[in-house]
Amino acid sequence: MTDFARRDRRELADLLLATGPDAPTLCEGWTTRDLAAHLVVRERRPDAMVGMVIPPLRGRGEQLRRARTAEPFEQLVAEIRRPPWWSPLGNPLTDELVNSGEMFIHREDIRRGTPGWEPRELDAGQQRLLWRGVRFTARIGLRRLHLPLLVRAPGVGELAIGGDDPRATLTGDPGELTMFVSGRQRAARVTIDGEPDAVERLRTARLGI
Questions:
Q1: What secondary structure letter does DSSP report for 83?
Q2: What value does the CA radius of gyration of the chain take, rounded to a whole number of Å?
Q3: Which residues contact 16 (CB under 8 A, 6 or more apart)?
Q4: Of 35, 75, 140, 203, which one has the greatest count of Cβ atoms within 10 A?
Q5: 126-204: in CATH 3.30.565.10
Q6: How far is residue 38's CA from residue 44's CA, in Å, rounded to a whole number?
Q7: Mean pLDDT score of the chain, rounded to an integer?
Q8: Which neighbouring-strand residues pair with 194?
Q9: 1 pLDDT exceeds 50?
Q10: What are the structural domain ranges in the chain?
Q11: SS in 3 state form for 144-180?
């Protein structure tokens, strides 16, 4: 069993404490305090989790997140370090499946929130795990563009979406593709080749699940 999610969780918590509660992130309008509150609510409030996938209920999750931002920052970070065993998003049995991408993305949200960042070097096992998440997210988010696309992670895999005659090809390491397909295109080191209008739509689309 791998422990990439656990490692990123631990190092994410360390990074939150090192940067403090007021550092910028890639999440528009959110500081590190907002991001920490989101992670706590995600794992500890099932009613908020429902709102993340059912748009009409999304306001409830946002109310809960805002309420948690008033709590001491160190307390929020401590709760991130110790996820509740009873939560489907914190249970050790499901941790790697549901949190490997989440912890990677939010750690990068902080790292890449200020200039001067460079991609981390990821080992092959983590690249393969992230590629699985890319395939899942891309099938949902990129399909909404109604563009034939090819997503390539050299040496790991490729995925055709919307047909066999792609109008654009998105290429990058799985970690960079993870950031791109989650809606963080401007902070992802990828290349896009293809028809200019298709490339532009891909770069500016609202992606993610």
A1: -
A2: 17
A3: 32, 35, 36, 73, 77, 80, 110
A4: 35
A5: no
A6: 10
A7: 91
A8: 168
A9: no
A10: 4-111, 126-204
A11: HHCCCEEEEECCCEEEEECCCCCCEEEECCHHHHHHH
Tokens of 105: 């993305």
Whole-number percent of the chain with pLDDT over 70:
94
Kindly give, in sequence order, each residue whose CB lies less than 8 Å from that of residue 155, ignoring residues fewer than 6 positions away: none
Q: What is the pLDDT of residue 57?
A: 66
Q: Match 């109008």 to its residue by tokens.
A: 167
Q: What is the pTM of this model?
A: 0.92
Q: What are phi and psi of 152, to 5 degrees?
A: -125, 130
The stretches of the chain forming alpha helices (DSSP H) are 4-19, 32-44, 46-53, 58-68, 73-81, 95-111, 124-141, 174-181, 196-204
Residue 87 pLDDT:
82
Quote the DSSP letter at residue 23.
-
Nearest to 34 by CA among 56, 59, 60, 67: 67
Q: 34-68, pLDDT tens digit by residue?
A: 999 999 999 898 777 666 666 666 677 788 889 99
